[in-house]
Design goal:
The protein is an alpha/beta fold and 232 residues long. It contains 10 helices and 8 strands. Its EC number is 4.2.1.1.
């Protein structure tokens, strides 16, 4: 019984690959030729936040790095290597750091109990965010709202680290790389732009209106005013 989920996943993959090949015979051969993603997605490992799915995009559209609680630490060589490769070599146009509601890491950081093992070390930056914003967080009595708030603050802290990254800074100055901080609302399936990063609130494009990232079968629009990312 324990193997059922894995066997189902393999069967599902086979069906998906067959469907995609039937839909577009050139899809996989083109993917095999290389990748030219326009977005670097930095997100949480949570199973409810599959970036390509929630963006409505396709394989090859998004370069991805995910970890528990989407923590961006300047000393984490894993994250730093992904950022450097995506920005300096793949030349992505957008770096998106996205947290989410109902985050287990956020809940753990708000608690005073040890999680155990390496997890306590990993969550230390998020607990630092908690202590740095103690008054703000303590004033929020609703537990769910408090969890959402620390998730937003965590994204803000991560964006600050990104904006101080040398590779990111050079790309911003040399070719207009954009950095965005967002929150995925699991309860409704929508991504909310927190107005952080290179362009401030609304995630405006270089022309001050909107910036369109076109994928293979869809596109995502970073639009000002409404403060959210929408998929067309």
């Amino acid at each position: 019984m324990e193997d059922d989920h894995f066997l189902y996943a393999l069967s599902s993959n086979n069906a998906w690959a067959g469907y995609k090949s039937h839909q577009n015979p050139h899809f996989f051969p083109k993917l095999a030729d290389g990748q030219t993603p326009q977005i670097l997605w930095l997100g949480c490992s949570d199973s409810r936040c599959p970036e390509t799915t929630i963006l409505g995009l396709q394989p090859g559209d998004v370069f991805v790095h995910r970890n528990i609680a989407n923590i961006i630490a300047p000393t984490d060589i894993n994250t730093s290597a992904v950022i450097e490769y995506a920005v300096a070599h793949l030349k992505v146009k957008h770096v998106v750091l996205c947290g989410h509601t109902s985050c287990g890491g956020a809940a753990a950081a708000l608690g005073d109990s040890r999680v155990g093992g390496v997890l306590d070390t990993w969550l230390a930056p998020l607990r630092a965010v908690r202590y740095a914003n103690k008054e703000v967080l303590d004033a929020i009595k609703d537990e769910r709202a408090r969890g959402t708030k620390i998730a937003e603050l965590n994204v803000e802290a991560g964006v600050n680290v990104l904006m101080a990254n040398v590779t990111v800074r050079e790309a911003i100055e040399e070719r207009g790389l954009q950095v965005h901080g967002c929150l995925f609302e699991i309860g409704c399936g929508r991504i909310r732009d927190l107005g952080l990063g290179t362009k401030g609130r609304g995630g405006l494009g270089l022309d001050g209106q909107e910036d369109v990232v076109r994928g293979r079968h869809a596109q995502i629009v970073f639009r000002g005013g409404r403060g959210e990312m929408s998929v067309k």
